[in-house]
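Translate structure to sequence.
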C-alpha cells in the first residue's frame, strides 16, 4: 500500500535553536527533521511508504529512557497516540521514529516532542516541537477493475439514479440537490429529461417506463408549475408548482434555466416519435410548453436589443442582468431564435450575446489558443451546459468554431491542473477538472482564476467528447483510487479537495446530469442527434448564421 505524504510545517513560537551566545557544548536543542529523507523545509509531497521513517536530529545524544514518554504521534481528529518504534543513530543524536502500523490515508497527524525529552547528560530539551503532516492517497484499486466500456456503463447507470430514484415523488422533476426536500430545479430537470433518454437507450429502464415518467413531468410543468410569460423560475416547489425564490429579487422567470429545460424537452419530443397515444400526448404537451415561452419579451418587452436573464413579478427588471457571452448560455440564444412565435432577431444575438465580437479572446494559454471567453477559459460548465444538445462538431458562426472553442477550453483546464501553479494536493494528469460546485467553504465557480484546490468530478467527466483520453484517466482515478471516498449511490459526490482533506456529501442535479449526457454524446452522440434534428433548432441556427454539417 502506497501513499503520498505531505509535510506541512513545524510549529514553534521561536526558533528551537538557542542564540549563538547561549550555545554550550552540552546544550540540548532540536536541529532538523526528515520524513523518509525529505527535509521539512522542502514543503510539498513525495511518495513514501505508509510507514514513514521520521528522523529527528538533536544537538547532543538523547537519553533513550525519556524518548517513549516525550515523543507522541496523534491524529489531529483524536487524542489517542499511535504506537511507535524508536531507533537511534549518529551516536544517539538522531531518533528514527516508525509507526508500528500503517497510517491511515488522507489523515492529519501531529508529531509532538515535549521538553520532558532529556539529553544523555539529563538536560531538558530547550523547546517543544510540533510537526504536522498529512498522509495522501492510498493508490491501490478500491473495486474490481472494469473495462473502460463497462465503467462508463456503470457511471451512467448509477448517476442516473439521482434523476430516477430521487426524483420528486409528485412532479417527477429533479431535486436541486440531495438535501433540498421539495425544491426542484427547472434547468436540472431539463438535464434529467436527457438522462432519462440515455437510460431508455441504454436499457437501464424500458421505453414505457421512461415515457410514463416524462408524461408525469410534462403534465406537472404544463398544469401546475408557475410560469412568467411562458418561462420557468429557477426553483419550484415539486409538490405545488409554486416558485421558490432563488434569491430575494430572483423570484420569477429565469430564461437561462428555462432554455436548459426546453433543450431537454425538445430532445424528448424528437426521441418519442411513435404513433401510440402516449407518445403523441407527450409531443403535444412539449409543443405547448415550448410554444408558450415568450423569448422576445425578455428584451424588456422589445424596448432593448439585450436579452435579459431574469424577470420578477415583484421587482420586474430590477436584477438587470443581460445574457452576454461567453458563458453557459449559448443555448438560450439559439432557442430564442428558434421560437415559432416569439423569436428574437439576429441583431439581439450580435449586440447582446456576442457584444459585436468583444466576447472574442484569441490568446494562448498553456500553448492552446482560446477563441472566446475569459482568460484561461473560465469554469468548464461554459463548454458543457449548452452543448448537452447543441452538437459542436463543425458548428461555427462569425465568432468561433465551437468544437475548437470547447476543446481548447477543456485542454486549458487540464493543462492548468497539470501545471498546478497553486501547488494543490492531488492535481495532475489523473486528477483534474475545475467548474462550479460545492467546496469546503460553500459553493463557487472554480476555474484557473478562482482555484482553491477543489476538484469537481463533473468537470472532467462532462468533458469526455473533447478530451476522451484525459477524461478517462480522471474517471479511472476517481473510481479506482478514490472510489471508497467519492463513489456513492448516485454516482460521484459533487466535489473533493485533497489539500484540506474534504469530500462533499452532496449531489447536484446540474452536475450529475451533464456526466450522463456528455458521456453519451461521446459514445453515441445521442442527444446531439436529437436536438439538432428539431426543425426549430435548425431554423434558429440558420437565422443566427451558424454553419453545421447537420443544417
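Result:
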Amino acid at each position: 500500500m502506497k501513499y503520498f505524504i505531505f509535510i506541512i510545517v513545524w510549529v514553534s513560537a521561536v526558533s528551537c535553536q538557542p542564540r549563538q551566545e547561549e550555545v554550550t557544548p552540552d546544550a540540548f536543542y532540536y536541529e532538523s527533521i526528515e520524513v523518509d529523507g525529505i527535509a521539512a523545509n522542502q514543503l510539498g509531497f513525495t511518495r513514501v511508504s505508509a510507514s514513514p521513517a521520521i528522523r529527528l536530529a538533536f544537538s547532543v545524544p538523547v537519553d533513550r529512557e525519556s524518548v517513549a514518554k516525550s515523543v507522541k504521534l496523534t491524529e489531529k481528529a483524536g487524542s489517542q497516540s499511535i504506537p511507535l518504534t524508536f531507533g537511534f543513530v549518529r551516536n544517539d543524536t538522531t531518533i528514527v521514529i516508525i509507526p508500528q502500523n500503517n497510517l491511515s490515508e488522507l489523515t492529519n497527524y501531529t508529531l509532538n516532542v515535549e521538553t520532558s525529552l532529556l539529553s544523555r547528560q539529563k538536560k531538558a530539551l530547550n523547546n517543544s516541537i510540533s510537526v504536522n503532516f498529512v498522509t495522501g492517497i492510498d493508490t491501490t484499486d478500491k473495486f474490481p477493475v472494469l473495462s473502460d466500456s463497462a465503467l462508463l456503463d456503470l457511471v451512467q447507470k448509477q448517476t442516473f439514479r439521482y434523476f430516477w430514484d430521487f426524483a420528486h415523488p409528485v412532479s417527477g422533476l429533479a431535486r436541486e440537490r440531495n438535501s433540498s426536500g421539495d425544491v426542484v430545479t427547472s434547468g436540472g430537470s431539463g438535464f434529467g429529461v436527457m438522462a432519462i433518454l440515455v437510460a431508455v437507450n441504454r436499457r437501464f429502464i424500458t421505453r414505457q417506463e421512461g415515457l410514463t415518467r416524462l408524461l408525469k413531468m410534462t403534465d406537472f410543468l404544463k398544469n401546475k408549475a408557475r410560469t412568467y410569460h411562458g418561462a420557468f423560475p429557477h426553483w419550484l416547489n415539486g409538490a405545488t408548482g409554486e416558485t421558490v425564490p432563488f434569491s430575494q429579487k430572483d423570484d420569477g422567470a429565469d430564461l437561462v434555466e428555462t432554455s436548459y429545460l426546453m433543450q431537454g424537452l425538445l430532445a424528448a419530443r424528437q426521441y418519442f416519435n411513435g404513433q401510440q397515444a402516449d407518445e403523441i400526448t407527450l409531443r403535444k404537451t412539449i409543443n405547448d410548453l415550448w410554444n408558450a415561452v415568450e423569448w422576445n419579451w425578455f428584451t424588456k418587452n422589445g424596448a432593448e436589443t439585450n436579452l435579459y436573464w431574469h424577470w420578477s413579478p415583484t421587482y420586474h427588471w430590477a436584477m438587470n442582468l443581460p445574457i452576454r457571452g461567453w458563458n453557459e448560455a449559448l443555448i438560450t440564444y439559439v432557442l430564442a431564435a428558434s421560437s415559432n412565435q416569439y423569436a428574437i432577431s439576429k441583431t439581439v444575438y450580435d449586440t447582446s450575446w456576442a457584444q459585436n465580437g468583444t466576447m472574442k479572446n484569441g490568446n494562448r494559454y498553456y500553448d492552446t489558443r482560446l477563441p472566446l471567453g475569459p482568460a484561461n477559459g473560465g469554469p468548464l460548465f461554459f463548454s458543457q451546459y449548452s452543448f448537452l444538445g447543441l452538437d459542436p462538431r463543425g458548428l461555427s458562426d462569425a465568432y468561433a468554431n465551437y468544437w475548437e472553442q470547447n476543446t481548447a477550453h477543456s485542454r486549458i483546464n487540464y493543462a492548468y491542473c497539470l501545471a498546478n501553479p497553486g501547488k494543490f494536493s492531488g492535481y495532475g494528469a489523473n486528477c483534474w477538472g475545475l467548474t462550479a460546485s460545492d467546496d469546503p467553504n460553500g459553493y463557487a465557480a472554480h476555474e484557473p482564476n478562482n482555484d482553491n484546490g477543489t476538484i469537481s468530478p463533473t468537470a472532467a467527466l462532462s468533458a469526455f467528447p473533447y478530451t476522451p483520453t484525459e477524461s478517462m484517466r480522471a474517471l479511472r482515478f476517481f473510481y479506482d483510487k478514490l472510489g471508497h471516498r467519492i463513489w456513492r449511490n448516485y454516482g460521484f459526490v459533487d466535489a473533493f479537495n485533497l489539500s484540506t482533506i474534504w469530500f462533499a456529501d452532496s449531489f447536484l442535479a446540474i452536475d450529475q446530469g451533464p456526466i450522463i449526457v456528455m458521456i453519451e454524446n461521446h459514445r453515441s452522440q445521442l442527444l446531439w442527434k436529437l436536438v439538432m434534428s428539431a426543425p426549430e433548432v435548425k431554423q434558429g441556427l440558420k437565422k443566427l448564421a451558424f454553419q453545421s454539417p447537420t443544417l
